Amino acid sequence: MSPTAPPETWGNSTIRTACPLDCPDSCTVDVTVEKGRIKKIDGGDANPTTANFICAKVRRFGERVYGEHRLLYPAVRRGPKGQGNLARVSWDEALDLVARRMQEIKDQHGAAAILPFSYGGSNGLLTQDTNDAELWRRFGTSRLARTVCAAPTGAANQALYGKMPGVVYADYPHARLIILWGVNPTASGIHQVPYIKDARRAGAKMVVIDPRRTSLAKGADLHLAVRPGTDLPIALALHRVLFEEGHADAAFLAAHTTGADRLRAAAQPWTIERAAQEAGIEAADLRQLADWYAHASPALVRCGWGLERNRNGGNAAAAILALPAVANKFGVRGGGFSMSSSLAFGLRAASWVDTPEPQTRLVNMNHLGRALTEYTDPPVQMLFVYNCNPLATMPDQNRVLRGLQRDDLFTVVFEQVLTDTTRYADVVLPATTFLEQYDIAKAYGPISLQLVRPVIEPQGEARHNAAVFSELAERLGVGRAEEDAETLLRITARMPNGIGAELLEHGIATPPHGGAPVQFVDVFPLTPDRKANLFPEAAAAAAPAGLYGYQPDPATAEYPLALISPATEKTISSTLGELRSRPAVLHIHPSDASARGITQDDAVRVFNALGELQCPANLTADIRHGTVGFSKGVWRKNTYNGSTANALCPDTLTDLGGGACFNDARVEVALLGRH
Ligand code: SF4
Predict the structure, then answer these.
(1) pTM for the full model?
(2) Which secondary-structure segment (H or E) carries 618?
(3) In the predicted model, what is the mean pLDDT of residues 31-53?
């Protein structure tokens, strides 16, 4: 099918597309369509890693497309903010209103009073950082640091390796030791699981480091249920063993790294016993891991995103990613680290966004609540939200809520469904889903780049991001309107090495290195000297306690429990949260529950100085004593009092990368009522 051909909308057909949602895997997706309506969503085989199966979340995506929450028409608010009472208007009326307000705000306060706010809700290369970036840059709005996820790990990976591509899932069966560190692929990145099982059948040992006993942890050779935020001492203790007991590869360190001596000095205070005590695990278990890692080859560390969501997250990621360099686990298939392969194709938005980034105010997205309620220079007068549901996903939820309730704040939400945030919008613009539009899906687990094709017509009057932002730019005199297919052709024409032409012709691009590079054989650090920098000076200067400096647990006698909010099998971040009908539960260890007189299914209050969450309790020994868990991405309707875990999360920032510290929430739990 030509990329500019209209979607097939009649008869019975199966149309191939790809999933661009914020998930590492980027599945090929085959959609059966009958008389223009989706009948079935299933896996296709173009991306060999995800061959023929997709997650249960996206199998249900038709319920989002056709569901009661779907936004079908542009609308304006009628009635108080928060109620979601909307009156339909035309696209012309809506865009005229938005453009007029933007110009008025620019004239009165300066364009920096406009805050565009987006994250990975669509996550394709066409629906973010294209015509939207051109509009914001040319108009001179505030800029957004998109740091809610992957910022600390990304900063560490960039500083140490320049984001060298990692070991792909297909090479996991070559490993003899796999360490799953702060990652739960049964919830996100499900296509890793079969490869891990293949490795296990071939004799690989598996270690899981996670405060929860996940399904993979239950089958692991070793499970370290660490206290949240203590991954850094664990990693430094492993370094100490490697350096002090003769397992560091001096020749490799001399040839391919810098800064090893300073890393060694930073690790020196962290004996196995001290680190184990800090993490609340058995010293013998940590010793076992150190011995296995020192001697196994190929040995693979899968560094996840769970370990970054705390005050030590960036340093923890840096210390973990440095392990394969110190022990030289590179150079063999299945050895090294897995983090993100997003740069494997060498694609950067700078290739197709022409306008340079102006040096306007930079707002860290984790500080949205502060920006809306405290910033004065200038105050935020317009919030333009797209690809994102910040009321459900940002820390310090109550402060975000207070900001959205401001009568003098003009909020635009460009969305697919009526989210928590959309209820506070003054203008609502309906967006197409990935099944109704062109996009480009780039995986960050496997190395894969696929064309996303529309399989049905847009529902109602929903429109593509690229078309709407360019039309807005034209109204404001800073650009030219173009349809999404035109944007697609323009962007693919700028991709290097003929990637774009291949994508348009075949729907998928050929991955470099056969899609499975061996680290330090096929790919090397993308740092200026092509070496792994184990003690990057810029990171050392940025981290409050210095590079590899540990900041202690923020628990107090008043709020002694660590609250974590991990990803689940139900949503992709908060996407598809509208389909959840039952209340979300607080997972609590039986010993913590009984100390508070709480039994299964009791209603509980989870609280700290920032707020309170009310929900049922689920007693489970699958979470460590002293830690409680509540799912990431839950919408406000799924708790008793309209607050989620984010109401208890501080908006403090990680040591590197300015990331969110969700897992630094410290809380108390009390009985609210008997079930
Ligand atoms: S969310 Fe992930 S696993 Fe699910 S279909 Fe999309 S890429 Fe595949």
Answers:
(1) 0.96
(2) strand 611-619
(3) 93
